Amino acid sequence: MGDRHESGIRHSLWRVDLPIFMAPTTYAPVPLQSQRRDNPGEMGGRVASPTLVGRVEELRILKAARSRAANGEPAVVLLGGEAGVGKTRLVTELAARCGADGTRVLSGGCVPVSAGGLPFTPIMEVLRVLLAELGPGGVRELAGPSWPELAWLLPALGKPQTAGPPSQAAQARLFEVLLGLLGRLGEQAPLVLVLEDLHWADRSTRDLLAFLVRNLRREQVLLVASYRSDEPGQGRLGPYLAELDRGGPVQRLELQRFDRAETIAQLTAILGAVPSNDLVDAVFARSEGNPFFTEELLAAVRAGSGELPATVRDLLRGRVEALPEPARQVLAAVAVGGRPVPHRLLAAAAGLDERGLVEALRAAVAHQLLVSRPGEDGYEVRHALLREVIEADLLPGERARLHAGYAHALTGRPELAAGDSPAVAAAELAAHWDAAGEPARALPARVQAGLTPHAVGAGPRPWPASRAGPGRPAGPGRRGGRLGRRGPARGRAAAGRAQLGRPCHRAGPGRRAADPAGRPPRDNPR
Ligand SMILES: Nc1ncnc2c1ncn2[C@@H]1O[C@H](COP(=O)(O)OP(=O)(O)OP(=O)(O)O)[C@@H](O)[C@H]1O
Ligand SMILES: [Mg+2]
């Protein structure tokens, strides 16, 4: 997604229909401090935008697929994206728009229970909705004479063919019955079948989806299956999705995070007013355009605490805690590094032998906590808030030790800050000595950086937006972080970085998983 300045969505502000980014000059911007209960219908806590922001192209693709399906050309869309990026919101919007033109929408979701998940959970959900709509007789009629194959999934239909989970042969018959049922439903009205959260799908659901993808022929069915692209263990889903790609009329749609303009649109729609620049800066620097995080952070600001919401903190912390200890160490080292950390610098700073380092990196990458950008030799924590939580959980001594690791590595070998001008490398070195609690050793480096201010602006690699933005949280002592505050050491470093004046890069989910061996990234393996 490029940098758009208007989402295409129009928003009703004060009964005037405005393009959503047109700032009405007669109203004061919403300031950064707490604003309680100024959103109609708000019950407290997180509030979602009443209008869909952006996603114009994605909706167009989905609607085109639906039109093809309505003409007897079944379509399958695999909708990927990181947690909270808006997959459910998009399919909900599609469902609402389809519902208005007579398309039937049925949806079911996989659930994260036990290893392997419950068999057929999403399809059971779909059948239950159908049962409520059509009654047992209606569903039996749609399923045809083999309906008892379905009764194991839906006991309300009557006596099942098998008492327990179906054998392989029975499962094949079940799939045929379901295919027939979907086909007959599609004859009544075009059907959109949504299967959500495929990353949690059990084996049977996966098999069923693969069967449908291979066997849909002329059914008026659009099948949309969503999955998280940042779920731990994604490696196992990747080959499966690749198989689906090969099996039939499959299209991939990968949702990206919002850009700044879209985040402003989201905030505007939630607040019913144009947010101040301070608010936008504070939220966007930390949410990096993830709409779920944007909602959470805005709710925190509006509640007046400014604390990172416990829901978000615990969620992110839980993912870090699932890592083996060496991987957590490496993750912490990358978080403290503050921007994409080149492999050789990490190796020198982290104090792990190469083999241990690669193993730890592999684990962090497999858990979707570290990523790298195509064409860049660097590791980065997946999201600014994740980095914030990792840093906040470090003890002061640990943090200082990690910074000292970088400082020592860069002192002997400034070239490890690959790609940076000497002045930028010196600024980075000074920041690390400062954060390591050794300001005297930072001095010469700071002088070196300060002597060549122009060169500082000319460095080729961007710092992550969240490092340069005013939302960068305070230094030592913060836990959970506070919005819009910055500790002195961090503030200086951040100010130096802000002076770099480079564009904020998107930390979107389109980034590839890093290759722990430092090889150049390949195309998305999924
Ligand atoms: N395009 C959008 N416009 C407005 N709000 C959005 C948009 N996309 C997402 N949101 C909001 O962000 C929040 C998270 O979105 P959603 O639940 O759809 O994410 P998701 O990708 O389905 O996440 P998960 O993987 O956890 O299921 C929701 O409250 C949703 O309303
Ligand atoms: Mg969802």
How are the SSEs ordered, and which strands pair?
Layout lengths: L9 E4 L2 E4 L36 H15 L4 E7 L5 H14 L3 E6 L11 H23 L24 H21 L2 E6 L6 H13 L5 E8 L5 H14 L2 E5 L5 H12 L5 H11 L3 H13 L6 H12 L3 H13 L5 H8 L3 H13 L3 E3 L7 E2 L2 H9 L3 H17 L9 H14 L3 H13 L1 H5 L7 H4 L19 H12 L12 E2 L13
Parallel strand pairs: 3-6, 3-7, 4-5, 5-6
Antiparallel strand pairs: 1-2, 8-9, 8-10
Helix pairs in contact: 1-2, 5-6, 8-9, 10-14, 11-13, 11-14, 11-15, 12-15, 15-16, 16-17, 16-20
The site of magnesium ion (MG) has 3 residues, from helix 2.
Structure description:
This protein is of the alpha/beta class. The protein has a domain at 55-254: P-loop containing nucleotide triphosphate hydrolases (Rossmann fold, 3-Layer(aba) Sandwich). The protein has 20 helices and ten strands. The strands form three sheets. A five-stranded parallel β-sheet has the order 4-5-6-3-7, sandwiched between helices. Strands 9-8-10 form a three-stranded antiparallel β-sheet. Strands 1-2 form a two-stranded antiparallel sheet. The longest helix has 23 residues, at 121-143. It is elongated. The relative contact order is 0.11. The model is unreliable at 1-44 and 451-526 (pLDDT under 50). Magnesium ion binds next to α2. The site of magnesium ion has 3 residues, from α2.
